[in-house]
Amino acid sequence: MFLDRPESGSTALLVHIHKSDSELATPEELNELVRSAGLVPVGCLSSNRRFPHPGTFIGGGKVEEIANWLLQNECELIVFGDDLSPTQERNLEQTLGKRVLGRTGLILEIFSRRARTHEGKLQVELAQLDHASSRLVRGWSHLDRQRGGSGRGAGAAAGLGGAGETQLEADQRMIADRIKRINARLAKVRQQRAHNRRNRNRSDTRSISLAGYTNAGKSTLFNQLCRAAVHAEDQLFATLDPTLRRLELPVIGSAVLADTVGFIRQLPHTLVDAFRATLEEISQADLILHVVDAATPLRDERIDEVNSVLFEIGAEEIPQLMVYNKVDLLDEKPRIERNVEGKPVRVWVSSIDGAGKSLLLEAIAERLGKNVIETSITLKPEDGRMRARFFEIGAVVQEVPCEDGSIEMHLRIQESSLRQIARDRNVTI
What is the pTM of this model? Predict the structure, then answer.
């Protein structure tokens, strides 16, 4: 759009740098990211390097190796598993004659393919523009060309044309203007979300957010819990746009469950900033369901990576319930694990077949429950809908029919839920 760069394409050479500080940085992860972006990997070159080369990231020897590979093989893109500086991208492209894509650019490409709603598309475009603007600062030589003056410059009063602006300045201005317009639209989104949260708070509706490493099974679990039809596939970043649904919990009653974008190692800051409007659903939740792919050997590393993103968005203090998903791939049974105080801290489930669903709902209700009381109320025959509601939320301990046709109900219920149900049915308790 703004840069004079080699043509892009669909076939890609992968360049992976082994790092001792992260077990998540693997050729397999890079391959999965590339395929998720709709690209076709045709080769992979790996290297060990402690520190990046300032000019090319990989050093002259590895650049020469890539050049020799290109003489014998066909590809249209060179994709790195790490972020590259604008200077590194430019130098590599000038030397190799191929389009070069770093980690952030690759993830942005995936996001642009996945975004479905208008809001999601705006957020992705904002991240793309922010990324592109950093590439303009030290941009390609064509951006130094000067455009003609408008007659409004320093010499305009004397009828002389002004100095004009360079192509670089024009492109920077265009990007800045577009970023300003998108931020204005997203600000309205934030206001609407804040308004909705205030309404939920006034009605004492508890909010729950799903969080986890990408492809951990969050959307599949969301569909199981809420009987929804959110798009869910076995691929990275299948879900970008947040979805909110009502969730019925035992004793607690209604809550709101939010499905959000998955996290990944080195999630670009531009994306974190762009998706802040949707990530606020996590940072403002009463409980985070931290969904973990229990079948991956990188389970602990991915948990740490998710927690680092939660810290970045200010959600580190929100209570978490760990949900160990995909027990169908393990020799494990659905179960609740509790701490020494008896509080649920970990639930083992399978989102694909619903195993452990009832246990998870029970654990969520326990973690969210406050002011849970045991009480008895007497319902008249005409209060049948209220009686059905008590059964619906699992609050009924026992019911005893009375001779006059009324029913004495023994309940274990959250006090606010009891009052809300009574208000909805115009019943005084």
Answer: 0.69
